[in-house]
Write a structure and sequence with these properties.
The chain is α/β, with parallel strands linked by helices and about 400 residues long. The protein contains 15 helices and twelve strands.
């Protein structure tokens, strides 16, 4: 049974649909529409489609369905729906559930585009959103109230790597009947089982670790079959945020090596964090695998490792940060993450640049903060590259 397989086996074999040719590598069904043998068959399919029956690529596609079934098997979710990007997944997960007058509680430490949706778009459509310190369960308890429709958070915040107690937040939210929507990108499906911890809906940017090689945009939302094939599918198929079959095939290939890549990247991230600890050019280093991380005890309970991401805060602010970035030889300066190539990002001038200086300061995003996504290069080479760039300070 698929449910009895280990994760690495699920990542290679789950969800396979072979054609009559028996191909080993999953087929790419590059088609927009599907042929019906009769008019009666077309009518029947629009009333209720079977598991291997498709109507239109915006609604579903065999290659896309393989990707959805594979990641659902990995997460232990009842179902999944793939989207054109991670932000299409976030937008769909929230807007498919909410109406004017609804109340949402969100962690305030979010990726810039997620902040735009929660701070600007949802209120524009009449949704009341309160923001809290996601690491403070008492703040969640004070903000959630009878009638709260959902809570939203990043399992590990971007870019300051705060880790949120999913089980604690879920208990608070469920006590008033609210749904728990978790963006699980930074912790990956390899290192944290957020559904088992109490999340109702998981959101991924498949663009990140799932692809893992910087090739394609994609996203996916996971949850109960009732939610995925009910309000979420209805919203997505009519608003058009569908994943292309080619990108779904790329994501399928990415899933095959996801466990291996993430574990190697996390090992290297830990090596780098320990090599940089107490470096005189740094105000601080943030890595969830270090004992001095503010949520170290929670990380030990909730995650398998500290993950693939770390952040460093340079003394000297923006000028020092830019000197560091320009001194790197191996790490690329980019705003992506989860890539095979290591990436350094300056959030204050890129991913979070639209926030005011005061808002960034409240989130801990100073002018000297650098987010580092650790890739698959040799750990020693990366340590030497970072130390060399720091020597210019």
């Amino acid at each position: 049974m698929t449910s009895d397989w280990a994760n690495r086996t699920k990542l290679v074999h789950s969800g396979i649909r072979r054609s009559q040719y028996g191909e080993m590598s999953e087929a790419i069904f590059l088609t927009q529409g599907f042929d019906y043998p009769t008019a009666e068959a077309a009518e029947a399919r629009f009333i209720e489609s079977g598991p291997d029956e498709f109507i239109y690529a915006r609604y579903g596609n065999p290659t896309v369905r393989m990707f959805e079934e594979r990641i659902a098997a990995l997460e232990g979710a009842e179902d999944a729906f793939a989207t054109a990007s991670g932000m299409a997944a976030v937008n769909g997960a929230l807007f498919s559930m909410l109406s004017a007058g609804d109340h949402v509680v969100s962690a305030k430490a979010l990726f810039g585009s997620c902040l735009y949706i929660t701070e600007t778009l949802l209120p524009r459509f009449g949704v009341d959103v309160d923001f809290v310190d996601g690491t403070d369960l008492e703040a969640w308890r004070a903000a959630v109230k009878p009638g709260t429709k959902l809570v939203f958070l990043e399992a590990m915040s971007n870019p300051t790597l705060e880790v949120i107690d999913i089980a604690g937040v879920a208990e608070i939210a469920h006590s008033v009947g609210a749904m728990v929507v978790v963006d699980n990108v930074f912790v990956t499906p390899v290192f944290q089982r957020s559904l088992e911890l109490g999340a109702d809906v998981l959101v991924y940017s498949a663009t990140k670790h799932i692809d893992g090689q910087g090739r394609c945009l994609g996203g996916v939302v996971l949850g109960s079959r009732e939610f995925i094939r009910g309000p979420f599918e209805t919203y997505l198929k009519h608003t058009g945020g569908a994943l292309s079959p080619f990108n779904a095939w790329v994501m399928l290939k990415g899933l095959e090596t996801l466990d291996l890549r993430c574990r190697a990247q996390a090992d290297t991230a830990s090596t780098i964090a320990r090599a940089l600890k107490d470096h005189p050019a740094l105000e601080r280093i943030i890595y969830p695998g270090l004992a001095d991380h503010p949520q170290a005890a929670l990380v030990g309970r909730q995650m398998e490792t500290g993950g693939t991401m770390l952040a460093i805060d340079l003394k000297g602010g923006k000028e020092a940060a830019f000197r560091f970035l320009n001194g790197l030889e191996i790490l690329a300066i980019s705003n992506n993450l989860g890539d095979a190539k290591s990436i350094a990002t300056h959030p204050a001038t890129t991913t979070h640049q639209r926030l005011s200086a005061e808002a960034r300061a409240e989130l801990g995003i100073g002018d000297g903060l650098i987010r580092i996504s650790v890739g698959l290069e040799d750990a020693g080479d990366l340590v030497n590259d970072i130390l060399g760039a720091l020597s210019s300070q």
